[in-house]
Amino acid sequence: MTAGPGDSPTLLEAGSQNAVAHALGIIGDEWTLLLLRYATALGVRRYSDFLERLPISNSVLTNRLSRLAELGLMEKVAYQQRPPRFEYRLTKRGRDTWPILLTIWAWEATWVPQHEERLPVMRHSRCGQPFQPLLMCAACGKPVEPRDVTGGFGPSGTWERSVPAATTRRRSFAGAGASPGLFPQTMALIGNRWSSALLGAAFLGAHRFKDFEQRLGAPPTMVADRLRTFCDLGVLDPAPGAERADWLSYHLTAKGRAFFPVVMCTLDWGHRWFKAPEGRALVYRHTECRRIFTPRLACDKCREPLRGGSDVSIEPEARA
């Protein structure tokens, strides 16, 4: 892999993990999401400010900030020489994660009633209304639901290349600050390499246990555990199979389908910033306009497109 700076894509090696795997390997870490959230929404840059605002240990914070700089999402810049002090500024690659953060925030606020702290209300800065991000087709400007998009693997897309490697998943350290717990169900869906793969399989039309097993290449016990977790969360709904009643068929619920904007924004970010020489890992089309589907977000109140994180204001937080 040829690392690029924060304003140019990373060039991947042929046959290596594709854009999907790299994106999920980064986004599927809760501390990373929180650091990006504070940097994007609140403009936090300095180590001491991150440490003050988050229930995080020095070792975890140092690890994640170094990782974000290594991956090109932040730039480590000296602001003082004696003694040396640094701040971590978002690069264009880092700033471009705002649609992912916004859709995760909206999904958790709508579908997950219990959080360790109250999730602030998001307000559209231009119309002044509390809002939910609305997923739109960038080509035709129309709202999009999961059923409106079709597609599958592109030139660099296989199940094996799309699953994040275990080494890319930075686990939280034990002890102080071991788990922030602010996006609990999002992490249950994408914070585990097999969970994210199973979720992708569900959106690509897998329903039966053997379909998930074959596509993921995961041990049957792992597939069974992930399916049970998704059902417990209310993301999948098991039903008797058409061939045999004891062969369950798993279908996305309304809660599961509502996670679609998170998936699409994550894939779009990954494809823009991690380029495989063979081409895209996944290719989707909007069935109505028949063009390649590129996600865009809009305010569901005024329908104006959201141009960036500056379009969203966050009301003051209240800790539990």
UniProtKB/TrEMBL annotation:
PROSITE patterns named among the record's database cross-references:
HTH_HXLR
**Does this UniProt record's set of keywords contain Transferase?**
no
- Pfam families per the UniProt record, alphabetical: HxlR (PF01638)
Say which domain of life the source belongs to. Answer: Bacteria
Q: Which SUPFAM superfamilies match?
A: Winged helix' DNA-binding domain
**What InterPro entries does the record point to?**
HTH_HxlR, WH-like_DNA-bd_sf, WH_DNA-bd_sf
* Annotated ranges, domain HTH hxlR-type: 18-116, 179-278
Q: What keyword terms does UniProt attach to this protein?
A: DNA-binding, Transcription, Transcription regulation
Protein name stated in the entry: Winged helix-turn-helix transcriptional regulator
Which species is listed as the source? Answer: Dactylosporangium vinaceum
